[in-house]
Amino acid sequence: MKFNKLIIMILMTLLLGSAAYGQSALFLLIAPGARAGGMGEAQVALADDSYATYWNPAGLGFQSGYELSGMHVNWLPGLVDDMYYDFVGGRAPVAGVGVFGGHIIYLNAGTQQHTGPNGEDLGTFVTYFTSGALSYSTMLTENSSIGFNFKILYQHLTDNIKTDVGTEETKGTATNFGFDVGYLVKGKMGGRLDLGAMVANLGPKVIFNDEEQADPMPTNLKLGFNYRAYESRYNSVNIVYDVNKLLVGEYASMDWDEDLAIGGYDEDGTVNPSGNFNVDGQNEIAHTDSWWKGIFTSFVDDWALGGDRDIDGDRLIGGFDADTLQTPGGAYNSEGKMEVGTGDARSVSDEFSSLIHSFGVEYWYNNMFAIRGGYFYDNEGKIKTPTVGAGLRYGNYGFDFGYTIAKETHPLNNTLRFSVLLKF
Prior knowledge:
This protein is mainly beta. The chain has helices at 4-14, 34-37, 52-55, 188-191, 291-297, 342-345, 348-352; strands spanning 67-74, 84-94, 98-115, 121-141, 144-156, 161-162, 169-170, 173-187, 193-202, 220-231, 235-246, 250-251, 254-255, 287-288, 308-309, 356-365, 369-378, 383-394, 397-404, 416-423.
């Protein structure tokens, strides 16, 4: 069936570049709300409407009244014509208890075709991803709040199918759960600065077929500020900035014990030429840490943990000289790429290069009309795009527009975001 093409498309174009490879539930990283879309996707310290159920549930604690929000967008129209993304959220305060809310996300990745081993047509199936979240927020002090999300997600990559042998069924769906926790404090620096923090998508790995092939959730840490740079009777300006750090400990195939070989043992230290572990029980094949461990190891996995990399996948480190002549103890692989010493070549700067930055500016006139601009910067994922947007508030209604200024070859080219708010 045409399935590999689908996976490549999702990993390469749906989301946030190379930092997301090797993970599941990536649809959770698609940013809802055209307001955020016009501000470089920086919202964690702003979060002053019901889209806070996604960006930072702690923002609900400062809000009053009932509100519904929603966005529908044809996703990546330059690449496919049948993919779309829907978001519906809302909030409801309960006196003396706090503010409750939630949201539903649905991404339809289009209709795919089943094909047999000989190319025969076996019908079609729809690939889609969905999640639902329940939110709660309460004030800690007059100027600070905390918020939580509990979410359940379902991923339908493909219908369950038989393998070529015809006896084993391959599972193409997965159900999982996760948590978010957020914090927001307002009124710093003379009442103009708000600070926000959120850890999103905490939860166990996603399992489709077996636990050994499970992929981690896209757990990430968001830190940000909102600076109210100017405020008058009719005019106001917000300057926002977010930094996003993926909390997933990821490792390529590495020689952890410096024996110039990858694996060779079972987990208990038994010799096994095809084993993935070294004699000390460390996994030397490409892998990710468990979600609870990755929260900590993700800060050092790019520079302090691991050893020399097996770049060509031959399960050996080096063995050749620079001219690709076989040399015992040589630092290069058969392709002439250096492998011995690659562990020492990593530095803490590699960790900072994986951070994702979002910048945004928002101008309001009379709290009715807004003009927005921003910039999304992901160095590792090679995504560096400016954004623009606008907003309108009239009575209990709100309308927002966001647009990413991208080259024709960029996956978000021609993607227009429109979203609405309704207060009652």
